[in-house]
Amino acid sequence: MIGGRMRIAWFSPMPPTRSGIASYSNELLVHLDPVFTIDRFAEPAAHDFVWTHQREPYDLVVYQLGNAPCHDYQWAYLTRYPGLVVLHDARLHHARARHLLQQERFDDYRREFRYDHADARADFAEYAVEGLGGSIYYFWSMLRVVVRTARTIAVHNSLVANDLREEYAGAPIETIRMGVARA
User: How far is Cα 66 from Cα 77, in angstroms, rounded to an integer?
Assistant: First the structure.
C-alpha cells in the first residue's frame, strides 16, 4: 500500500482498443481511481508488470478476461500472479485454441485440453488442431486453469456463477454487477 491506498494491477484491454471490456474498464476505473492506486496493464505495456511487481508488490491483481484476441496477453500472467479474475465469457475455449494453435503450439493445446477436460475423448482436441474446432469449443469451456489458479472468479450472471460452482466445487466464485452507469 502507498499512503494507505491499496495498489492494484489492472489487466484489461483499454481504449483505443475496440472492445466492450475496454470501454467497461475505462468507465469503471474513473470511479476506482480516487480510492485506489491503479496501474493499468494493457498490451504491450503489460511487460512492465513483472519488474514493477517485483520492486513493490501489488495488493491485488485484477484480470478482465474474455474470449477476444485483445485478452490473449493475460494468460502469461494469470497463473503466475493469481488474483481476481472478472470472467466476461463463460467459455474460453475459443480464446485458448486460437492463441495456442496460431502459434503452432499444438502439444500445449492438447495438454491443456486434457487437463481441462479429462473426461473428454483426447482425440476431440485433434479436430481443433486440424482447424475444425467449430462447435467443439462450445462443449468444453477450458476454464479449469483460470478457476484453479485465481484467488476469486467474478461473473456478471448468477446462473453462470451457479454453473461454475457446481462444476468447480470449492472454487471462490462471486456474482458482481457490471458496475457501469445505466443508460
Answer: 15
Supply the mean pLDDT for the chain.
Answer: 91
Beta-bridge partners for 65? 87
Q: Which of 41, 130, 146 is nearest to 93 (CA)?
A: 146
User: What is the pLDDT confidence band of residue 172, given thresholds at 50, 70 and 90?
Assistant: very high
Provide the Cα torsion 132, 168, 145, 155; round to 10°.
90
Residue type, 77: Y
* 21, 12 Cβ separation under 8 angstroms: yes
Rounded distance, CA 117 to CA 136, Å?
12
How does pLDDT run across 95-124, given as a tens digit for each residue?
999 999 999 999 999 999 999 998 888 788
Which residue type, as a one-letter code, is found at position 73? Answer: Y
Report the distance separating Cα 39 and Cα 34, nearest Å.
13
Q: What share of the chain is helix, strand, coil (3-state, %, to 5)?
A: 45, 15, 40
